Request: fold
Amino acid sequence: MFLKRVIQTAAGALLLSASLAASAQTAICYNCPPEWADWAAQIKAIKDKTGITVPPDNKNSGQALAQLTAEKASPVADFTYLGVSFGIEAKNKDLVAAYKPANWNDIPNGLKDPDGYWVTIHSGTMGIMVNVAALKGRPVPQSWADLQKPEYKGLIGYLDPASAFVGYVGAVAINQARGGSLDNFGPAIDYFKALQKNEPIVPKQTSYARVLSGEIAILLDYDFNAYRAKYKDQANVQFVIPAEGTLVVPYVMSLVANAPHADNGRKVLDFVLSDEGQALWANAYLRPVRASAMSKEVQARFLPASEYAQHQSMTDEMMRDLAPAPPPVTPGILWYTPPAPPAAFSPLTETSPIAPLSRISPFAPPTPPTFIATTGRPAALASSAAMPNDSMRAGATNASAWSSFPRTRPGHCCASSPSW
Reply:
C-alpha cells in the first residue's frame, strides 16, 4: 500500500511538472485567427523557432479589447493583435505593458508608441475585393459610387463597423472619399443609407470564405486578402482601389499588462518583427513594417505602385501640419488615427445585426499623435488637412444622425469564421 502511494505521488508530480512545462511554453494571444493575415503560418513558425505554442484565437479587435478589459484584474492573455485605434485605446486603459521588441529602431516613429505600448507589424490598403465569377458578367466596380448601382443588389458585403476594425476603416474611408471629415460623418451615413437599397450583407466576422464561395461577390476589405485569394487559393478575385480614394491602415501588437507568461509574449513579439517573421507577413501580401522584408517577387503581385500612388494627393506640407513626426512614407500621404469604439461599448454583448455607429463617439487624440496613412482626392480631404492636431478625432457631432445608421437585412448577422 505504501509503495502504491509513493508511485501515485510520483506519477502525480510528473504530470504536474509536465503541465507546468507545457504552460511555461505557451503564450496566449487575443485576436490571432489562423485564417486572417496567414496567422496560421506565423503561429507554426513561432512554435518551430521558439518552442512557444500560441493557440489560435478568433476574436476581432473589438472583442479582444473587451475581453482584456474584463480580465484586467487577472489577465489571461500574454499579447494581443489589434487595429491601431484599438491598440491606442488599450494603452489608454492600462491594458498593455511597455516593451520595445527586436528591430525596434527599424520601425518608423509614427508607427509605434514611443514607449513600446504598441508597435505596428504590418499594414493593408482598404478597397474592394471582388469575386469576378460571382458577378456573372456584371462589370467589376471601380469606385465606392459604383457599389450603389442596382446591378449589384444582393452582392455586396461589409463588416460591422462597430465590432470589426476593418468595417470601421471602410466607413471612414468612404466618409473621407466623399468629402467628410473626422468631425463630420454625414457623407458616410448618407452613403450607407443609400446602399441599403442593394441589400448588403453585414457580418461581424471575417468573410473571406464567403467571398471565395461566391455568397458575397463584393466585399469591402484589404488588399492582402484579395491577393491571397488570387495567388494562394487560385480564385478569380480582383482587388480594386476605389477611384475616390482609400486608407492604408496599420495593425499593431502589444504585450498585455501583467501577462501570466510575459517572457513568452516578449519572445513572440521579437519573432514577428524578425527578418523571418516579417517575411511571413510579406508572403501573405501584407506590407511588413520593415519594408526590406518585402521581396521583389511578392511586390510584383501587387497592383502597380502608380495605382496605389494616384490618390496620394496630399502635399508634404499638409502632412507635416497634421503630423509633427510622420514616418518616412511615399510623399503625399496624410497620416491620422481614427479612434476605437468607447469603453461603454462591448462588442461581446452586442446582439443587433449591425450596431448603430452612434456607439462610436469622439475621443481625445493620443499623445503624442500617431497616424494612419490616408489616400484620397484633394477635395475629399481638404477639410481634414486643415484640422489642427488637437481636433484629430472621429465620430459624428450629431449623435442622432449616427443613430440612424442603417442595419443589414435580417438573417445575415454573424458568421462563424474568425475575425480581426
